[in-house]
Amino acid sequence: MRIGRFDVQIFSDGVFKPDGGSMFGVVPKALWEKQKPADDRNRVAMDMNCLLIRDADNVVVVETGAGAKLPAKQREIFGIETPRLLDELAERGVRPDEVTLVVNTHLHFDHAGGNTYRDGERLVATFPRASYVFQRTEWEDAMAPNERTQGSYARDDYAPLEATGRLELVDESVEILPGIRLDRVQGHTRGTQTVRVSAGRETLFFSSDFMPDRHHLPLPWIPAFDLYPLDTLAAKKAILARAVSERWIVAFTHDLPRFGRVSEQDGRYRFEELAS
Predict the structure, then answer these.
(1) Spatial CB neighbours of 253, under 8 Å, sequence gap ≥ 6
(2) Backbone dihedral region of 143: left (phi > 0), alpha (psi from -120 to 50 degrees) or beta?
(3) Least CB-packed of 41, 67, 135, 174 within 10 Å?
(4) Sequence-distant (≥ 6) Cβ neighbours of residue 55 within 8 angstroms
């Protein structure tokens, strides 16, 4: 996908399987299972999507998947297999030391796990030359999680980055590079951020987990994981209206790794994949 000077590609770090009821919140299983069938443990298969954004001077990775550090029990619970992040980058001609910027939409283990890896007893940044960009509020909440949130965060994914001097905390909305914008969208967490790549009248939007896949386009379909569901609702109303009117190219964090556009008819939103 070409957006101005940027080449943008989407790929999956692999599948994980969260609880279906948690993914769809107050929506009855009789409705959501028609869209996303559950396995015998009530889990639904979701891709962990990443973006690779490149121009002549920058190599940006958005999301790093679950990584390889999760304990075996947690990997079994969530059905997580071998991470594909580095293999996917290698297939696209990118070495870890060529990445200049890493963005996590938030710091949950399925989005930030590949930020670091174990080298013997040490935790090391996977991308040694990259700056790692998070919202300050997300960093603060991840470093001091409460009883409600602590199961979603793994400090080994992000805390070691502080000592490297490669940590970059931002506030609210910021253009991290000309044409690449991050916006804080409270809903899934307090410090969740979305990613927009723009050139001229063309915009590519990467949603984050308040709207994790095409099946969450209906406004009331909000994950039970979201800490601020009414803020999620307000964000969806504003963002979807704009995505339709401005014909944004849209990608989701936990859908099939595809680009598409959102259309609306009679108050119903639909995701239409673009030809690859």
Answers:
(1) 48, 49, 63, 105, 111, 206, 207, 208, 209, 212, 213
(2) alpha
(3) 41
(4) 5, 6, 7
To the question of pTM greater than 0.85 for the whole model, the response is yes
Residue 82: strand, helix, or coil: coil
In order of their start, the domains of the chain are 2-273 (3.60.15.10)
Find tokens 């992040």 and name the residue: 85
Model confidence over 88-117: pLDDT tens digits? 999 999 999 999 999 999 999 999 999 999
Distance CA 16, CA 25 (A): 18
Q: For residues 143 and 189, is the Cβ–Cβ distance under 8 A?
A: no
The beta-carbon contacts of 72-79 under 8 Å, at least 24 apart in sequence, are 74/109, 78/16, 78/17, 78/18, 78/43, 78/110, 79/15, 79/16, 79/17, 79/43, 79/45
Tell me the per-residue pLDDT of 116-166, one tens digit each, with 9 for 90 and over: 999 988 999 999 999 999 999 999 999 999 999 999 999 999 999 999 888
One-letter-per-residue 3-state SS of 101-113: EEECCCCEHHHHH
* Cα gap 52→257, rounded to integer Å: 12
